[in-house]
Design a protein that fits this description.
single chain, alpha/beta, four-stranded mixed beta sheet, 3 helices, 19% helix
Length: 135
């Protein structure tokens, strides 16, 4: 088995694709409209699914908003420099919800940003991210 993707339902597909590609630097890998069942799927990531996991953005036609509930936590991304990454996201119009710095009671440096639909994205400093540490 291999992890393939995480699916997020979005209220405005073009806005979400713009966020993940222009602000987070991912590539739009493919997009598919399903006319019969009225939804569109867009897959974004830093590499093809054959190489690593990606995010599937699902737009159900006519649904502009979802109740995110309290079960979903976040998607995590490793970054070489979370301080510079947050500054670039801020300058591009992205929302920083937790400024970069060490986790409470630990040394791993993290930050949180939020996509246009309210999904949280954790940025983890590269060294800690590559070691699988978060704390």
């Amino acid at each position: 088995m291999r992890f393939l993707h995480t699916m997020l339902r979005v209220g405005n597909l073009d806005r979400s694709i713009q966020y993940y590609t222009e602000i987070l630097g991912m590539k739009l890998l493919r997009k598919h409209d399903n006319e019969q069942y009225q939804y569109t799927l867009a897959f974004v990531g830093y590499a093809d699914e054959s190489e690593q996991a990606v995010i599937e953005l699902t737009y159900n036609w006519g649904t502009e908003q979802y109740d995110l509930g309290n079960a979903f936590g976040h998607v995590a991304l490793g970054a070489d420099d979370i301080y510079a990454t947050c500054e670039a996201i801020r300058k591009a119009g992205g929302k920083i919800t937790r400024e970069p710095g060490p986790v409470l009671g630990g040394t791993t440096e993290i930050a949180f940003v939020e996509d246009p639909d309210g999904y949280k994205i954790e940025l983890i400093q590269a060294k800690a991210a590559s070691e699988g540490i978060n704390g």
